[in-house]
């Protein structure tokens, strides 16, 4: 099992949000000690996000298990070099579509060649990391933002393409009326510099089970 990491800024963020925002003041105490968790490594996390695109969580897990079984290491840490060595036909037998095979191979080649600067990410701005990630086939801005929140645990990401976030803001701030991205951005301004934390609590308000990537 991979080591689980939680952000060291969480308690400070909760205090800040509770002071600044009436909805957060009510939401945060409902979830006690639960908090964002990060596990696995960068390549595996992104590979899982590609495998899970447009299929149910249960189906994604089944495909992932078959895919990981083709590799020699544990399923929570797969290597780009091994993925590149596997024949396309073998990847297809795991239940991956031709497009997802292309995406996984492109992801593996970006990591294997050093086109993504994993070791420098800690010192890089969020937008610079997003730019590197969206250059990989099959990774859009939303996936890159989920990666920033769930893997790198960046504190101030506001994923405006996320339907759950927009729905949660609609229910918690606008009595269920539909909200535009501009209105969501405005609500999110009050959450800075801890917009990731507020987003996590908005997701919890819709589904008490923590999301993990």
Secondary-structure blueprint of this entry?
Elements: H1 10-20, H2 22-27, H3 42-51, H4 57-69, H5 80-85, H6 88-93, H7 98-113, H8 126-134, H9 141-150, H10 163-173, H11 181-189, H12 195-206
Catalytic activity: Hydrolysis of alkylated DNA, releasing 3-methyladenine, 3-methylguanine, 7-methylguanine and 7-methyladenine
Protein name: DNA-3-methyladenine glycosylase II
Keywords: DNA damage, DNA repair
Can you describe what's shown?
- The protein has 213 residues and is mostly helical.
- It folds into two domains: 10-37 and 156-206, Endonuclease Iii, domain 2, CATH 1.10.1670.40; 42-150, Hypothetical protein, domain 2 (Endonuclease III, domain 1, Orthogonal Bundle), CATH 1.10.340.
- It has twelve helices and no strands.
- The chain has helices at residues 10-20, 22-27, 42-51, 57-69, 80-85, 88-93, 98-113, 126-134, 141-150, 163-173, 181-189, 195-206.
- It is elongated, with a radius of gyration of 18 Å.
- The two termini are 14 Å apart.
Main sheet summary: none
Q: What is the averaged pLDDT score?
A: 92
- The CATH architecture of the largest domain: Orthogonal Bundle
Distance between the amino and carboxyl termini: 14 Å
Helix/strand order: HHHHHHHHHHHH
- CATH class designation of the largest domain: Mainly Alpha
InterPro entries: Alkylbase_DNA_Glycosylase/TA, DNA_glycosylase, HhH-GPD_domain
Pfam families: HhH-GPD (PF00730)
Enzyme class: hydrolase
Protein name: DNA-3-methyladenine glycosylase II
